[in-house]
Amino acid sequence: MQPELLTNINIYRKSFPHFERPKIIGYIGIENIKFAKHLNNGEVRFDLNLHLDKAKHRPQHLDVKLTDLLIFLKDHKTRLGYPLENALNKAIFYCYRGLMTCIACTPYENKEPWKIVVILYKGNIYMCARDTEESYTRKHNMTEKDKRFTSWGYKFEQFLLSDNPDTEPNPNVPVDETEEFSLVFTTNLNNHTVVYGAEMDGIRCDDRSISPPPVGENPEAIIKYLSTKEYVELKTNRHIEFHNQEINFRRYKTKKWWCQSFLVGVETILCGFRNDEGIVEELKTYNIRDLPKMSQKFWDPNVCFNFLDTFFTYVKRCLAREIRRKHGDKGVDNLQSLPIITLLLEWSPGMPVRIAEHYKYEDDPILPEWFINS
Hints:
Elements: E1 23-28, E2 35-36, E3 42-47, H1 67-75, H2 77-80, E4 92-96, H3 97-104, E5 114-121, E6 124-130, H4 133-140, H5 144-160, E7 161-162, E8 182-189, E9 192-199, E10 202-204, H6 219-227, E11 231-238, H7 243-262, E12 268-274, E13 279-287, H8 291-294, H9 301-327, E14 341-347, E15 354-355, H10 369-373
Parallel strand pairs: 2-10, 4-6, 4-9, 11-12
Antiparallel strand pairs: 1-8, 2-7, 3-13, 5-6, 5-14, 8-9, 10-11, 12-13, 14-15
């Protein structure tokens, strides 16, 4: 019988697991770094439709898999110096923050199923989200309204973020939605080591004087610079006018916002509340420490991170079972000798997490040949 992972909330109501403050070990797209000079509460008038017709939109159906993270790992393998582990309990997880957020929120999710490919290769575990039927259909049937909502989020950032700590934001030019700046973090969640990439909105410089990042320096100098800065997360939300909107905001939005920010050590979220025409009329800042308190009737951070910890344990248990089935007991402590081991994990609301039957990694390879050969 295949192992299953239960998602019942009550199972995970216990003390918060040990979680080390995330450490920055790298960056992707440093040329796209942005700075936030103005983080004030109050009334504004930001028209998110400004130059929308000239924006360079991010492709809707782009399947990046783990490409950017894998390029980073290949280019920095000597500097990072991670050992070649043979024991499964020492394997490092590699993924994106979005996937960890999705997993952590699973006990409270009641609509969106998910699929995650797990790859064990050379002592490392790579995890990548894949489309479900629902998400595939949604992405390929986006209405113009859906696309506009997505673009509004990018435009909002342009009203608050500038290219240099000493310059003002300039929303009077079209947005390039393909520009990304990401950090690569590592942390330990109980006995699990995780390395993950996360797109970052901007560095705070509203109440402090800071310099731009050093140009042409070695990675360690830039990482030192990035590690001493405080980051901000920018969000947009429709005006909350009715009780049910307030309930949904506290039940769903604050949970995801908290997980996203906590995983990368962000302490401040700035939300622009807009009307239906895409005009942001109010700015409000949130300290992420306050989000669990204001939403305690609806979700518990202890449940989220205890489930995330248990999920990592479950992945290792499933991989150990697969290794023993294919290569015997000795394979669990001799990972360097094994070929690629893959699993597809599936979950739907109301069901436990399960291993999918009849999965073929060859039909959807996550690790490209250039990465394997390196």
